[in-house]
Design a protein that fits this description.
By secondary structure, this protein is α+β, with helices and mostly antiparallel strands. It has a single domain, classed as YaeB-like fold. The protein has three helices and eight strands, in the order ββααβββββαβ. The strands form two sheets. Strands 2, 4, 5, 6, 7 and 8 form a six-stranded mixed sheet that branches. A two-stranded antiparallel sheet has the order 1-3. Strand 4 and strand 5 form a beta hairpin.
């Protein structure tokens, strides 16, 4: 799947953040946090995530032109509702580590692997 695809079919407008994501976001610079907050608002208001790549097994990556990446998945929450879960981020050399960490975090959740389509 191309990273320029728009990820909109079946994207839940509910957004949750894993504790690891919250810890990570406390330490990033303001310009990167602005990008992530804007993406969260777009998800909540429109149910759309752009520039997305399917990393398999329910894990997805959103990438910005500056190299910042955001990892997320669609999960079933404790109420049985589908929710978009923000997992963490990486940039440059941190990317592989961030993907491994995101996959490890996902083991705690009920991932909805066939929930979304990237055109």
């Amino acid at each position: 799947m191309a990273s320029d695809d728009i990820f909109n079919a079946g994207v839940p407008k509910e957004v949750e953040e894993d504790a690891e994501f919250v810890d990570w976001s406390d330490d990033i610079d303001g310009s990167q946090l602005i990008l992530i907050e804007a993406a969260k608002e777009k998800i909540k208001n429109l149910g759309v995530v752009s520039s997305t790549k399917d990393l398999q097994d329910g894990l997805y990556e959103k990438k910005w032109k500056n190299g910042l990446r955001l990892y997320f998945a669609v999960i079933e929450n404790s109420k049985g509702q589908r929710t978009l879960l923000l997992l963490g981020s990486g940039k440059g050399l941190e990317q592989d580590k961030a993907i491994r960490k995101s996959r490890e975090i996902l083991k705690k959740y009920k991932v909805v692997k066939t929930s979304i389509k990237i055109p």
